[in-house]
Structure formats: structure tokens, C-alpha cells
Amino acid sequence: MKKGDFKKLLSVVFLLVLAVVSFSCFSKSENKEEKTTTETTTSAVEQGQKAESSGKDVIVIGYTSSQTGKFATESREQSNGLKLWVKDVNANGGIYVKDLGKKLKVVLKSYDDESSKDRVQQLYTRLINEDQADFLISPYSSGLTASAAVVTEQYGKILIATGAASDKIFSKGYEYVYQIYTPASRYLTDAVDILKQKDPEVKKIAIVYENSNFAKSVATAAKKYAEENGFKVVLFESYEPGTTDFTSMINKIKASGAKAVIGGGHFTDGETLAKQINDAKLKIDLLSILVAPALPEFSEIGKAALYVTGPSQWESKVKFSKETTPSGYEFFGISAAQFVKEYKNAYGNVPGYHAAGGYTAGLVLERAIEDAGTLNSNKVKAALDNMDIYTLFGHIKFDTGEYHGRQIGHTMVIIQWLNKNGKLSKEIVYPEKAATAKIVIPYCSKF
């Protein structure tokens, strides 16, 4: 190799080595810079989360309502009651959270569940993951609430269950679900007591009910209670949701010889059943139906509503207030009378128990957050476990044992549609200490 060629070769090798070293240094520098940027970004996210936590200025409460589908009537009232509570609490500056040292206003986030269980699960997942709801209120009905509870329990989120009376929900070991209503197992037991006290000649009862979780649990408990009290249940039969023709069921009631009919399901089927029993002029002493008679809209069926009785979680004529609260208990929130006044002003009609339940769900959550002093779900849960208060809805206390979260404080009343000065009027007829009128028996005396 010539001397000149050798020099050229050395120059090429030198340049190659220089390029490799330079690339290596540049690569290390670039990786170091990339790593630093990642660490800085992570630190910024953490700082942002802390800032967001300390700077939180609203409490997001999520729920679904049945704007469409078979639960639309009851769900609308429940939602109206909840919205009225939000209006009241925000007018007072919000809910005081001790850990943050300030009041936070409440923001509602809701969707139409279309009375569909599948849609409920999708929407509660969305409320938790996308809408970042702090707490949740149940849909209306036991079936929809059972679907929501599966989701909320999975995420460890508090679910205040209003409009849901099924005991079955609370037999699954849930820790974050709390019931506002008196449980289904106690819904129709008062109707049996009325027969025993006011009409002891009646011995045969027909129980007809909608094939749904709620109605089935009510009917099963009522059957057991009636038989324990010496009655013979001569017909125990379900009908499918959406039934509009009860002719065959009414014929079975006639053939059974029953002198009392109890059961039902929800508003639409209950209203239809009452109307068709009236049209058939069924010769019975007592007709007691779930849900429908307690709603103001029930009067729209006219004479068919007369003398129909039904259990009610709450009535606008109850007197719950600070002044009527038993000694040793605290009253929280506005009085029942004040609630009725506000609701009428807001919506133009007298509230039923679904509306009162909606308002009370918010009220109970408000009290639990204030007692806990934080938005931490586990600490709010502890406050709910310890709750033992009176509200416009009556006594509120939760089971902390085998049926955790089930309502054990609240009790029901029995209402009956009566003729007052030529107009239908919904009156409390049982228990007598709460009655606004005397019960009319037999039901068939109107024919």
C-alpha cells in the first residue's frame, strides 16, 4: 500500500470512530433528556392532582332517571324531589366539608335509563369513570337499583337507594348501598293487620302481583304473614310486567272466594288492575295495591279509585318536624310541611312519597358528608352506619348487620281514597294515631 493511500485509510477510520462516538454521546444525552422530561411530566400530574383535590369546589352526584319506559311516572317525582334538595342546599351555600374548610355546591349528573337494567349498568359505569361522580343516587325501582348496585359496589362508591324497597338487594353483602324506603317485607303486612282488626269475618285472601323483584318479595312476605295470622291465601299468582288485561286474573279471584285482594306492582299495572276490578264490580271487602294508590295521578281513574287502599312510604299530611321529633333524637333538614310548600311552588302539585324519597336521599347524603367531614367514601360510609335521625321522611337508621344498609328506622302508613265533599281525597287511615280519616270497609259498598 502506498504511503498516500495509507494516510487516506487512517483518515477514513478516524472519521468513522468520531462519528460513532459522537452518535453515542448524542444518544445518551437524548435519552437522559427524555427521561428527565418524563419525570417532570409525572411530577406535574401529581401536583395537579393535589391541586385539584385541595381546590375542589363542587360535589358531583350521579344518578339515572326513567324519563321513558314503564317507570317514568314514579321516577319523575323522585327526580323532582332530588332536584329540589339540590336547589335548597345550594341556596345555603352547599355542603360543608370540614377537611376542605369550606362549603361545596352540588352538581347533578344524570341520564335517561329508559327503564332498562342493561342501560342502568352502562350509565352508572359512565357516571363513575367518565363523569367522576363523588356519590350516587339509585334509579327508581328495585330491579334497576339492583343493577346499579352491582356497579357501584364494584367501585366502592356510596349508592343511596331510594325508590327501591326489595330486601333481596341487601342480602348480598353490599357495603356501600343504603336504603331510604321501608323494606318490601313490611309493605303489605299492615293490610293484613287491618283485616284482622277491622274485618275479622274475612278469612280468605287473594294475592296477585307483578312478576318483578320488588312485587314478588312483597307478596311472598305478605303470604307468610297472612298465614301466620290465621288467614287462608286462596290465590297466590303473578302476572307479567306490562299486563293490560286482567280479566282472567279477576275471574280466578271470583272463583277462589277471596274477600280481600292485595298485591300489585308499580303504577301502570296497579292503576289498570284497580280500574278493571272496579269495572267488574268485584264483591270484596278490601283492595290494597302497591305503589299506584299512593300517587296523586291515581285519582284520574275516578270512581275506580274510591275505597282503594295502599301502603305509602310518606304522605303530604304527615307532621314530621323538629317539634314532633321524639325526645333523644335529632331532626335534620326542613319539615314535612315546608317540603310540601316548596314542592307545590316548584312543580304545581302536591308531592307523593316518591318525591319525598328523592329529597330525603339527598338530605341523608348531605348529613353523612357533614358528619364525616370529608368526601372519602369509607368515612362517609361510617357516618351512614352511625346515622340515627329524623327527617321530613321520618326516622332514618340503617342495618349494620347481616342485611347491611337496609332501612330499619322508617315505618309506613296506609292510605285510602275517600269521598270528601264530592271530591276524591287521599287520606291516611292506618295506623290510627296518624290517621286523618276512618277507613271505609267494605270496598264493594260503593257499588
Mind sketching the topology for me?
Elements lengths: L2 H52 L3 E8 L6 H20 L3 E3 L4 E11 L4 H13 L5 E3 L4 H13 L4 E3 L15 E3 L9 H10 L5 E7 L2 H16 L3 E8 L7 H10 L3 E5 L2 H13 L6 E4 L19 E4 L23 H12 L5 H20 L4 H9 L2 E4 L2 E4 L15 E8 L2 E8 L17
Parallel strand pairs: 1-3, 1-4, 4-5, 5-6, 7-8, 7-9, 9-10
Antiparallel strand pairs: 2-3, 11-14, 12-13, 14-15
Helix pairs in contact: 2-10, 3-4, 10-11
Organism: Desulfurobacterium indicum
InterPro entries: BCAA_transport, Leu-bd, Peripla_BP_I
Pfam families: Peripla_BP_6
Shape: globular
Number of helices: 11
User: Total strand count, please?
Assistant: 15
Order of helices and strands: HEHEEHEHEEHEHEHEHEEHHHEEEE
Strand order of the largest sheet: 2-3-1-4-5-6
**N- to C-terminal distance:** 129 Å
Tally of separate domains: 2
Name the structural class: alpha/beta
Mind summarizing the main beta sheet? 6 strands, mixed
Q: On the 0-100 scale, what is the average pLDDT? A: 89
